[in-house]
Amino acid sequence: NLRSLDLNNNKLEGPLPISLAKCMKLEVVNVGNNMISDSFPCWLGSLPELKILELRSNRFYGPLCKSNITFPFQALQIIDLSHNEFTGFLPTRIFPGMEAMKNVDEQRRLEYMGGAFYNESITVVMKGHDFQLQKILVMFRAMDFSSNRFHGEIPEVLGNFKSLKVLNLSHNSLTGNIPVSFENMTALESLDLSFNKLDGRIPEQLLSVTALALLNLSYNRLWGRIPRGNQFNTFENDSYIGNIHLCGEPLTVRCSNDGLPEAPPLASSDHDETASRFDWKMAKMGYASGLVIGLSIGYMVFSTGKPQWFVRMVEGDQQKNVRRARRRQMR
């Protein structure tokens, strides 16, 4: 009859005990901030009431499993796998079974998870900041796979999660485009895809996600014009920094007619630096030429004794210097 298991923030080691699969009424498994070393617990997908799975900041490793369960994690509303060592592709076979991510029971929107039995609190990361939720609304949905080593493309199937409010896939090695299917995630309020290797344009279809309040696409390989309109008019530069081929507001880089960044004009400092380098080159050439000519003339003078006027001038100067030195010694 165990409904909530919260072992967060201890120093637990070893694997997660598979005997938890017998607790068929479990709604919450929170073992975050420990030192648990294990592969992803696919077997938890068989728990019909599991709503929260918190594994963040442990030593979980390897790829997410290809579950043999027909519809795993059906009731799951919050999953946090951040700050572990997971690898491989995002789990396209697990996502379709997450029915609770797709729809919200409108009649229970203002109820809190656990009801009178327990008060569950979790930490949610949004725009790089931790937010502590002391009570969790039944309608709340969040998915955090950040700070792992996932690679490959973002699955289009994520667009089916129409009730998802927080999606964080940052600090991985994800590639490809931002899925156009994200336009269906109409409840999404926070989207963080920063520090990946995503390329392509930012889909104009994201303008239809009007609930979006926090956006972070920084440090990817995105290019082209940034969409404008609706909530996109509220996002500032830090949502896009690190994408050197993006252009348009709110960035200072203008777009050309084809929607690509304009080539920056040659700055005055660059011109001055170029001119300075040119002047130095000329000076070095003149110095080298003068040195060669001077040495040649000197060699001719002292080897031939000509011209005599130059020899007499040098000898006269030497005699004057000798006489001055004698006078100083006599004094």
Write down the Rg.
36 Å
User: Strand order across the biggest sheet?
Assistant: 1-3-5-7-11-13-15-17
Name of the CATH class of the largest domain? Alpha Beta
User: Any low-confidence stretches, pLDDT <50, length ≥5?
Assistant: none
Instruction: Say what the CATH topology of the largest domain is.
Output: Leucine-rich repeat, LRR (right-handed beta-alpha superhelix)
The ordered H/E elements are EEEEEEEEEEEEEEEEEEEHH
CATH superfamily membership of the largest domain: Ribonuclease Inhibitor
Give the averaged pLDDT, no decimals: 82
Q: Give the strand tally.
A: 19
Percent of residues in helices: 10-25%
- Kindly give the count of domains: 2
Q: First CA to last CA: what distance?
A: 116 Å
Count of runs of 4 or more consecutive helical residues: 2
Largest sheet: 8 strands, parallel
- Derived from helix and strand composition plus strand pairing, the structural class reads alpha/beta
The second-level CATH architecture of the largest domain is Alpha-Beta Horseshoe
Beta-strand residue fraction: 15-25%
Task: Give the overall shape, derived from the CA principal axes.
Answer: globular
Defining key terms:
331 residues, alpha/beta, Leucine-rich repeat, LRR (right-handed beta-alpha superhelix), 2 domains, 8-stranded parallel β-sheet, 4-stranded parallel β-sheet
Structural summary, described in words:
It is a single chain. The protein has 331 residues and is of the alpha/beta class. It folds into two domains: 4-247, Leucine-rich repeat, LRR (right-handed beta-alpha superhelix); 280-329, no CATH class. Helix content is 18%, strand content 19%. It has helices at 268-304, 308-330, and strands spanning 4-6, 13-14, 28-30, 35-36, 52-54, 61-63, 78-80, 85-88, 122-126, 129-133, 142-144, 149-153, 166-168, 173-175, 190-192, 199-200, 214-216, 221-225, 245-247. It has an eight-stranded parallel sheet, with no helix packed on it. A four-stranded parallel sheet has the order 6-8-12-14, with no helix packed on it. It comes from Citrus sinensis. Belongs to the RLP family. The chain crosses the membrane at residues 285-302.
